[in-house]
Amino acid sequence: MEEHKLIIVEWFNKLLDKIFNVGDNFIPAHIFMAGLVTILIIVFFKLATQNLSIFPKKMQQFLEMLYSAFQSIIDNEVGEEGRKFIPAIGTLGIFIAISNLIGLFPEMGSPTANLNITVGCAFFVFIYYHYHGVRKHGVWGYIKTFAGPVWWLVPLFFPIEIISHVSRPLSLAMRLFGNIFGEDLVIIIIASIIPAGIIGPIPVMALAVFSSLLQAFIFITLSTIYLAGAMAEEH
Fold it and tell me: What secondary structure letter does DSSP report for 21?
């Protein structure tokens, strides 16, 4: 999808150009859409959590169900000790899910269909789980987890572990980018070749909704597995 064809981004850049004289392409489309998703999430949760009650209504029930889903994923991989990670992992999962889905709306684009966004998310996970690994084990203790079970296997295990950890953010970023970019591209192609431009892509869009949620689930599940490995007492 060509970013400059997103009308909402063109309009916003023209508005900025008139006010600040910054040029017609001041904000790239993926940055604009990522910012829009962030604002939508903040506003939604600010409004949705204003009237919490002991006897929850439908919105509160939905939020509690969402929280329980993230809690279940983390409990299964890390244990109850990992519940402190729910805010970070939950926020990341919701951001990715909404970013995946927003591209299905007319004149919108998925931020996660751009490699810059997926690399940013993957790099955050990379830094986050290493930080907590060092925080729990100490610098030297965490480095020793890369060395294998016995000292004479260090020359073999250490390079393998380094390659494994470096490949993780690359794998996370490329998997998410490839799937979401492919979905958007397929929908655009079908909409352009089928005469019923609105009805034609609907079956593909229905599949894309499922795939978008699935990709968010895979991303946070793998992130949680990496956290579990960093927090484990024995490797």
Answer: -
Q: Which two tokens stand for residue 148?
A: 């294998």
By the 8 A CB rule, do 62 and 39 touch? no
Helices (H) and strands (E) in the chain, counts: 8, 0
The 3-state DSSP class for residue 1 equals coil
> How far apart (Å, rounded) are the C-alpha atoms in residues 161 and 147?
8
> CA 137, 140, 141 angle in degrees (round to 5)?
35
- CA-wise closest residue to 183 among 92, 103, 118: 103
Q: How many domains does the chain have?
A: 1
pLDDT digits (tens, 9 = 90+) for 76-118: 998 888 899 999 999 999 999 999 999 888 778 899 999 999 9
Which residues are within 8 A (CB) of 18 and not within 5 positions of it... i.e. 6 or more apart? none
pLDDT per residue as tens digits for the range 188-228:
777 677 655 455 567 777 888 999 999 999 999 999 999 99
C-alpha triplet 110, 111, 117: angle, nearest 5°: 150
Q: State both tokens at 138.
A: 């100490």
Range of the domain at 207: 3-231
Map tokens 């998997």 to a residue.
Answer: 175
CA atoms within 13 Å, Cβ hemisphere of 117: 27
Number of neighbouring beta carbons within 10 Å of residue 193:
9
* pTM of the full structure: 0.87
Q: Please, which residues have CB within 8 angstroms of residue 52's CB and are 6 or more apart in sequence?
A: 60
